[in-house]
Design brief:
about 290 residues, about 15% strand, two-stranded antiparallel ribbon, Rossmann fold, alpha/beta, 9 strands, 2 domains
């Protein structure tokens, strides 16, 4: 008889995050296999917020390890504060022989040492140097790391639910990819985007949303834009339209608050010249009629 885990379908989404069926399946597979879920997708498609949704949906604590260009893998495991120990040896009255008091667990170490299963978000892993993912291979496999200063081994009491996000700034090594479940978040079609909008703005006026969506997806279809507007920019724009009291019939004529949608100067320049006939200037997009 084939094995079936009745608890396999654990993650069903959360009230404030719209997850597609393939995404929910990917989350549940990664939990069942005990492997990190590597998430890619355009900026603004909800990669980071997925971890928040999982933590909320499964009622678990969330730890966030924000990766920078200078981040080293060991920082996620532990940090040995040699500077504080030196200062204590000079000016303090502490017993500096106990090195453990100068060892602080990083986010990965905290997740391993927790008495309960946590959700760990490793956010934007591709910002780090090329060796960073490789330096985590053993920890991802055996969920253990060693602290030589204290001769202590930290093993995961509960295997964390690990979400790893990437913007594909760098290619990740094959050895790292083999240890992950992968999912690419596709940019939502209009129907799915409307569902996302209604999560954030349940009372939005239907005509306003309809006109805004026309403009938004028309902008998305401009191949010349360096940075196309994303979901987060749409939500900001809709909020600005509602706060500003913009009538729905003015949206496609003037595209108010264009700066909430287009974030690069070259895109503003292209938009103003190609679609409005105006060069970039202090007047912005005055007297514009959007052409679909």
């Amino acid at each position: 008889m084939p094995y079936f885990d009745k608890d396999f379908d654990k993650f069903k989404g959360s009230a404030d995050y719209v997850a597609s069926s393939p995404l929910k399946s990917a989350v549940n597979v990664s939990i069942a296999l005990g492997r990190p879920l590597l998430i890619r997708g355009e900026p603004g498609t909800g990669k980071t917020m997925l971890a928040h949704s999982i933590a909320k949906g499964l009622d678990k604590k969330l730890l966030i390890w924000n990766i920078k260009s200078t981040t080293k893998a060991q920082e996620g495991m532990y940090v040995y504060d040699t500077v504080q120990r030196l200062n204590d040896s000079r000016f303090g009255d502490k017993d500096i022989a106990d090195i453990s008091q100068y060892i602080k667990l990083g986010k990965l170490g905290e997740a391993f040492d927790s008495d309960e299963q946590l959700v760990l978000l490793i956010d934007e892993i591709d910002k780090a140097d090329l060796e960073f993912p490789n330096d985590l291979l053993n920890e991802l496999d055996v969920m253990t790391f060693y602290i030589p200063e204290t001769k202590q081994t930290i093993s995961a009491k509960n295997r964390p639910i690990m979400i790893v996000t990437s913007n594909a700034e760098k290619e990740l090594p094959d050895a790292f990819l083999r240890r992950c479940v992968f999912h690419y978040i596709e940019f939502p079609e209009k129907e799915g985007m409307e569902e996302i909008v209604h999560v954030h703005f349940p009372d939005i006026e239907s005509k306003l949303l309809k006109e805004a969506m026309k403009v938004f997806y028309a902008l998305r279809n401009v191949d010349e834009f360096r940075k196309k507007p994303s979901t987060s920019e749409l939500l900001d724009w809709l909020q600005a339209l509602m706060i500003g009291g913009i009538p729905h019939d003015k949206i496609s004529q003037e595209i108010p608050f264009i700066g909430t949608l287009l974030k690069k100067e070259v895109d503003h320049e292209y938009f103003n010249t190609a679609y409005t006939g105006n060069a970039t200037g202090g007047g912005g997009t005055r007297n514009v009629r959007w052409r679909y």
